[in-house]
Amino acid sequence: MPINTPTHKFSVGLHYNKGKFYGAVYGRYVQKYDFFSGINIAAKTQDLNGDGTNDVVENARNGRTWNYGQLGGFTVDANVGYYATDRLSFGASFTNLFNAEVREFVASPVISTLFNVEMKYTIDFFAKK
């Protein structure tokens, strides 16, 4: 296993596309894990050398950087849409549908639930006439 990666991770998705409607639900799980790389730390509170003193403290400054805690977790994304014509569609999507507290990178913020709407028009520049 490469250093600083989770032992277990998986993703699953369901996609529906029939007639004028489409939708999808995707789930992603990354086992919570401690990340150490140079001055960057994303880990639970722990005594690394066994001397009885916590060398790493979660939600506190550790050296020059801030440690927000372990990386990983479980999140669900979803989208739905409608094809108004062959070229025009309207859709909506949710990222982190259940507002899970998941960090992807060291010192990155938690991504709260995001809602997005879209209108797409397809132009085929290479269509043969």
Low-confidence stretches: none
**Cα-based radius of gyration, to the nearest Å:** 21 Å
Largest sheet: 5 strands, antiparallel
Helical run tally: 0
Output the structural class.
Answer: mainly beta
End-to-end C-alpha gap = 54 Å
Beta-strand fraction estimate: over 45%
Helix content class: under 10%
Order of helices and strands: EEEEEEEEE
Looking at the structure, what is the overall shape? elongated
Which strand order does the major sheet show? Answer: 1-2-7-8-9
Topology:
Layout: E1 9-18, E2 21-33, E3 35-37, E4 40-42, E5 60-62, E6 65-67, E7 71-83, E8 88-95, E9 114-121
Antiparallel strand pairs: 1-2, 2-7, 3-4, 5-6, 7-8, 8-9
Notes on the structure:
Its main location: membrane. This is Iron complex outermembrane recepter protein. The protein has 129 residues and is an all-beta fold. The protein has one domain. Helices cover 0% and strands 50% of the residues. It has no helices and nine strands. The strands form three sheets. A five-stranded antiparallel sheet has the order 1-2-7-8-9, with no helix packed on it. A two-stranded antiparallel ribbon has the order 3-4.
